[in-house]
């Protein structure tokens, strides 16, 4: 049964990333469905921070869906935004502190198999998901790094389809940067 659930979850999540790179609002419902299935798998696989992350993905899925739908109804083109380097440095520093805190919780109170890596990928996935929902172009850079690390995390817990999904996500994140950069250039030219 786990294999079937993993296949369904990965399928929904692939649909999510394909539509997200294209700026299509329908990415969010697919991400919600994939995340709900993933929660169950990760609890059984004892990677608890990932399970918490996917609860967050469900919540952010509804938030992103709402945000993108509002903007879509306000005008035909979803706006891409950029942040300066200082904001990202502060965000990354905060991410490191949050990673340390989550690591301590997992190490102290759970039987998590890889608490440091699980904490790091979870915290930075929180950050990258928020950046995606807010349509910050830099979200794709975060996703490339996160997905490279989750390949190892998932492989080590015998979630091979999720490891492959992480490779697909990393490649799609490169496409996302390319596609969103084109949109951003078009926006800037129109101003």
Explained architecture:
It contains seven helices and no strands. It has helices spanning 2-21, 27-44, 48-74, 85-109, 115-133, 139-156, 160-190.
Helix-strand layout with pairing:
Layout: H1 2-21, H2 27-44, H3 48-74, H4 85-109, H5 115-133, H6 139-156, H7 160-190
Helix pairs in contact: 1-2, 1-7, 2-3, 3-5, 4-5, 5-6, 6-7
Decide which structural class fits the backbone. Answer: mainly alpha
Uncertain runs with pLDDT below 50, 5 residues or more? none
Rg over C-alpha atoms, rounded to the nearest angstrom = 16 Å
Chain-averaged pLDDT: 91
Strand content: under 5%
Estimated helix fraction: over 70%
The figure for the number of domains is: 1
Number-wise, the strands total: 0
Instruction: Please give the alpha-carbon distance between the first and last residues.
Output: 53 Å
Number of helical stretches of at least 4 residues: 7
Summed up:
Helix content is 83%, strand content 0%. It has helices at residues 2-21, 27-44, 48-74, 85-109, 115-133, 139-156, 160-190. It is globular.
Q: What descriptive keywords fit this protein?
A:
83% helix; globular; 7 helices; single chain; mainly alpha; 0% strand; 191 residues
